[in-house]
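Q: What does the assembly look like in three dimensions?
Context provided by user:
Components: two
Sequences:
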Amino acid sequence: MTDKDVLSIGFQIKTIELLDTCLNAPQVPLAAETVFQFEINLEHRINIEKDFVIVICTVSIQNEPKDQLFGKLRSSCVYEVKELSKFVDPETKAVVIPEVFATTLNSVSLSTTRGLMFSYFRGTFLHNAILPIIDPKSFSAEKK
Amino acid sequence: MMNGKTMETYTSKLIDDLLDSIDPIDQEKVDAKMLLAAKIADAMKAKKWKNKDLLKAVGKDNPSIITKWLSGTHNFTMDTLIELQHALNIKLLALEEKENKIVANYHKTVCQTVQSSPVIDCVNEIFGMERQSLPLFSSSFSLTTNNSQPSFAQA
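A: Here is the predicted structure of the complete assembly.
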């Protein structure tokens, strides 16, 4: 890796917030081994004035045919990014966060949400429904 | 400490009384007018504009109006502020609710087979049963009402 390949961005986590939660008891008793579907959505929001990148992570836990929602948790991780304005395109005014940095933010946010989920669902029928380890690069992205 | 001298804080009862007597709303009005004037002056400086350039850009013909705008005492009308925003390409009014802009969305679905909760497993182990065959109640009670005082007997 050359010096040019090194991307140095100063950032720190400012706030972790639990936004929404829900827990729905299963209609029929769950089998000893149950297949859970984890639907994950990560949304990046920007506040240029405050140098904030807000990653809102929503995880829905459903049954395999996806016809019953067992639980849902939405969290937000607020990151303060040094000189965020340098990622603003001067012509289009669009914010372009480097892919590698976006992946890092997604990875940290996912891990944080995994902890929040465990804390919220512990002692319930979703006690063992721990958010699996996911490659943060494998998400399908939609840039706005 | 500056040049070997200690800096002293000057306090005056007269000044304090005067400052206290200013209505906070009046103070806010003055601050807003000064801020608007400063924003206009900064935008002109960035564009390297002189008063006559701004005069031309807003389509006015009285040069003294620019001096008045930059004095920090002018009570701007909404129309003037909108004209200035367009001419200088700056934001002087912030009427809309500021919302954090969404820049990207990432999505993924993962499947995982999960064992039942350890609490249930523990119950199964104690009773030596499969989870599905667990009875609803481990003991039942019958209620007798022969006397005025009901009594319970375990079955």
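Follow-up: DSSP finds six helices and three strands in chain B.
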